[in-house]
Amino acid sequence: MTFADRLAQLVAARESQIVLGLDPDPTRLWPEAIVEAPPDGPPARRAAAAVRAHCAALIDAAGPACVAVKPQLACFERLGAEGWAALAAVAEHARTAGLLVLADGKRGDVAVSSAAYADALAGSTQTPFGDVAGLGADAFTASPLLGGDALEPLIAGARAAQAGVFVLVRTSNPGAADVQDLALAQGGALWERLARLVAQLGDAGPASAAGLADVGAVVGATAPQHMARMRELMPRAVLLLPGIGAQGGRIEDLAPAFSSHRAGGLVSASRWIAGAHEAGGGSPATAARAQAERLREAAWALS
Amino acid sequence: MTFADRLAQLVAARESQIVLGLDPDPTRLWPEAIVEAPPDGPPARRAAAAVRAHCAALIDAAGPACVAVKPQLACFERLGAEGWAALAAVAEHARTAGLLVLADGKRGDVAVSSAAYADALAGSTQTPFGDVAGLGADAFTASPLLGGDALEPLIAGARAAQAGVFVLVRTSNPGAADVQDLALAQGGALWERLARLVAQLGDAGPASAAGLADVGAVVGATAPQHMARMRELMPRAVLLLPGIGAQGGRIEDLAPAFSSHRAGGLVSASRWIAGAHEAGGGSPATAARAQAERLREAAWALS
Q: Where are the beta strands (DSSP E) in B147-257?
């Protein structure tokens, strides 16, 4: 089954469009995770074990209100090989909890390297010693800066594994304006051009029972004024919407994302869920579960 | 000493501006590397050992004609945690051979994640169990698609480690035209705007004895018609020039890159060196050494 159809089924079954962002910072882990690290060994191994325990606890707490997790690859890579092993374990934990895995690395490179990234995240790699499985992600984020011939191997690799790709169109950070909002001589902003590219690449993909494309878009929830135009330019794309909460985005502005399909928008939140106890008190797990459930209800009510 | 000054010294000492690209494909490793893999164990471990041996042999053969290695992170990530461990070992092997390490991952993300990437590649990560060192790269590649506030933490993290950053300005693939060549309403192409951003970010950096900035640019050798303009827009930037050979770029077109300083251009070649024996015969190591030496002479003669 294609990524889009697996997603649509899961959104309907869980009545949720929430994606649990996993951005573990080793200095801000839940206390219950730190004590699960081995008492000795190299710092990277102990920290990776704590990161893994933190993410597992977060998934156990908030996962039931979500459809997917979105591990931020940078947060694992900074712990080296131990971090990558923790990432694989966390992805497996999420799958066992019935969640999709969206690997967030914003990869993009010339064709041969893009193909390698697709193998790393969703596919597998042929070697003289047998195939090596990748991370097994259900979808991953990609950068369109290198153009169509760089995106195509990422998408082809994803498709071969029945996975999806979310292409950056208009990100949630203030600096997105520096490049993505530039006005083009041909008319429109760069992000509109990127949105058209996403629609095109998705239309070339497999049919989906839900009518959704397997190429989606990352669209920051911090620029709600563009949301209706995004939906117009990319009618079949699933929009991955980061930036709610800490970055200033408001869930009530996201309704246009859901106008085509209930699974047409995915609301991603990381620190807002994992750090809910810092603002509201209570145990980290209880606060995270309540926050995720509030988000789930608010998004579902919009769709 | 800043990255730019370390680079300038090494270029002068080795009379070389050649960067040895490390893009190991497990199905195309040198035969001498495959036999060094352990006779049993999981495919990922055996393949990672072979990749490590391949890169070490390549560095031993071609390294003396080069100033740096450029590992393509995708090629290691596709072997998971074992691949990441091989990457760290290969970087260490290159350093021992007196070469700089340019980590090629084209990273770029919102500020907090960009900071994590900088820690992963050039810095270190604070954890409750002690600091975890990153890859120790002397420089890394970065994507500017997310704008200034996403590049700044990458550059700040690099600077704190006396490392450099190479920002994508105009890549070597044909699809680069799809986005980077778009004409802007304000005049000029997107890549010219990116080039100005690179110059600005570099000017804010530390002084360098060589007069070179610690923010460089990735500029494909496949669009030589832009080379003089690149140098004009980024007078102090080191230009990392991939695309020679297999991708169609010709070394004799790169002279403008060296007009400001002999270390102002770095010519990167991967398959053209590692696969030299496929075209010209001989042992892989002998052919790679001869090819790298030919490239070194050709670039040095231009500068």
A: 164-170, 215-219, 239-241
